Amino acid sequence: MVYGVALFFALFNNLAIFIVLVAVYGLLVGRYGVAGTFRRQSVVGLVFGLFAVGCMYARIPVYEGVIVDQRNAIVALSGAFGGPLAAGVSALLAASYRVYLGGAGALAGAVGICLAAVAGIGLHRFGGRMDSPRRAAAGALITTIAILPGFLWVGDLRTGWALLQAMALPYGTAIFLGIFLVGLLLAHEEHRRKASETLRESEENYRQLFDAESDALFLIDNENGRILQANLAASDLYGYPHDELLAIRNSDLSGEPEDTARVTKNTAVVFDQVVTIPLRWHRKKDGTVFPVEISGRFFTHHGRSVHIAAVRDITERKRVEEALRESQARLSLALSSAHMGVWHWDIQDDRRHFDDQVCRLLGIDPETFSGTAAEFYAAVHPEDQQKLREALAQTVARGAPYAPEYRVVWPDGSLHHLTNRGALVRDDTGRPQRVNGVVWDITEAKQAEQARRILEAELRQTQKMEAIGTLAGGIAHDFNNILGAILGYTELTLAGDALSADARRNLQAVVTAANRATELVKQILMFSRKGEETRKPLQLRLVVEEASQLLRQALPTTINIRLNMDCPAASSLVLADATQMHQVVMNLGTNAYHAMREAGGELALRLESVRVDDATASRYPNLQEGNFALLTVRDTGAGMDPITLSRIFDPFFTTKGVGEGTGLGLSVVLGIIQNHGGAIGVESHLGVGTTFKVFLPLVHSEEGAATAVIETGQIGGERILVVDDEPALAEIVGKILESVGYGVAVVTSPGKALETFRSDPEAFSLLLTDQTMPGMTGDMLAREVMKLRPGFPVIICTGYSDLLDDAKARAMGIRALVMKPVGRAKLAETLRRALAESQ
Question: Which of 76, 56, 176, 62 minimizes the C-alpha distance to 119?
Answer without folding.
Answer: 76
